[in-house]
């Protein structure tokens, strides 16, 4: 293990499939420095064509889907590294050292395991107790214990989370993506607790709302201050200056989730343009010709 890792990251996600990419989008969008290691051998690659992922009524080819989720990871601000992780070990400062096969080691505060095909790289940090044996067709195999992690992805190792392998929670692409997001929210809640947020305010929700809904008491900062006080225990242990800073930051974050119609329109155009980047040019041109033909017919 190299304790003198050259790079640092708040979160390292091991695995660039649906679970890992979903987790990385959540942590990176929150503002945590996130690194995703992807060796390019996700079990998704074994799928001939993806037909049951919500939002693609005619299905989507695996190559395009894979490109889309990686594009989303990078657009969210995470670093995508095409390398295989050999080991994850505890660092002397309580974090982790992630050793890839080819590149430099990375120091991380938190690690999200998201590799459905094996988890040997976790042995140095979880030990043998995290692996068990099972019998399939009369043969005995070893596997990472699907019950090792709790339902929220947390583990007995502080700072280590498991999105995959996870038994039945990652056997379908859409379920695996949801699992990754769920585990990321667990990691984010822990990070917020470390920063001083009380348990009742630790959960993080990532969504955008219409500015038109910011009305009544919820448009009043003082109402949010009251809510923060109601959910903060008397023994929170923070000095007054720190408590006020956290409160105001949280209120700012809540207000920033509201966007006006112009911002919604801009995001809509940007989102559609981004999708076009992943569609074959010949398909776009063919669709454009059909639209021109329809418009010409309507004008006659």
Automatic annotation (TrEMBL):
Pfam families linked to this entry: Pyr_redox_2 (PF07992)
Record keywords, A-Z: Flavoprotein, Oxidoreductase
InterPro entries: FAD/NAD-bd_sf (IPR036188), FAD/NAD-binding_dom (IPR023753), Ferredoxin-NADP_redctase_2 (IPR050097)
The UniProt record lists the keyword DNA damage: no
Keyword field contains Flavoprotein: yes
GO molecular function: oxidoreductase activity
Superkingdom of source: Archaea
Ranges for domain FAD/NAD(P)-binding: 10-128
Protein name as it appears in the record: Thioredoxin reductase
Native source organism of the sequence: Halococcus hamelinensis 100A6
């Amino acid at each position: 293990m190299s304790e003198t890792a050259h790079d640092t990251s708040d979160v390292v996600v091991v695995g660039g499939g649906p679970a890992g990419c979903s987790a990385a989008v959540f942590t990176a969008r929150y503002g945590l420095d996130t690194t995703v290691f992807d060796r390019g051998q996700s079990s998704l690659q074994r799928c001939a064509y993806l037909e049951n992922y919500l939002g693609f009524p005619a299905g989507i080819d695996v190559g395009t889907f894979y490109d889309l989720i990686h594009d989303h990871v990078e657009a969210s601000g995470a670093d995508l590294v095409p390398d295989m992780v050999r080991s994850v070990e505890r660092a002397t400062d309580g974090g982790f050292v992630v050793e890839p096969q080819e590149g430099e080691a990375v120091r991380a505060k938190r690690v999200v395991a998201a590799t459905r095909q094996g988890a040997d790289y976790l042995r140095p940090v979880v030990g043998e107790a995290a692996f068990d044996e099972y019998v399939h067709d009369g043969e005995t195999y070893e596997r990472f214990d699907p019950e090792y992690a709790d339902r929220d992805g947390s583990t007995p190792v502080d700072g280590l989370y498991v999105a995959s392998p996870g038994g039945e929670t990652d056997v379908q692409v859409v379920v695996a993506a949801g699992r990754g997001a769920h585990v990321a929210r667990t990691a984010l809640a822990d990070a917020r607790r470390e920063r001083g947020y009380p348990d009742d305010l630790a959960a993080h929700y990532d969504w955008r709302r219409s500015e038109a809904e910011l009305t009544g008491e919820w448009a009043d900062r003082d109402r949010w201050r009251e809510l923060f006080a109601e959910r903060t225990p008397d023994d929170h242990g923070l000095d007054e200056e720190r408590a006020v800073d956290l409160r105001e930051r949280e209120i700012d974050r809540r207000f920033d989730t509201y966007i006006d119609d112009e911002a919604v329109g801009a995001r809509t155009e940007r989102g559609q343009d981004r999708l076009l980047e992943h569609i074959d040019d010949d398909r776009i041109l063919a669709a454009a010709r059909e639209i021109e033909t329809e418009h010409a017919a309507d004008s006659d």
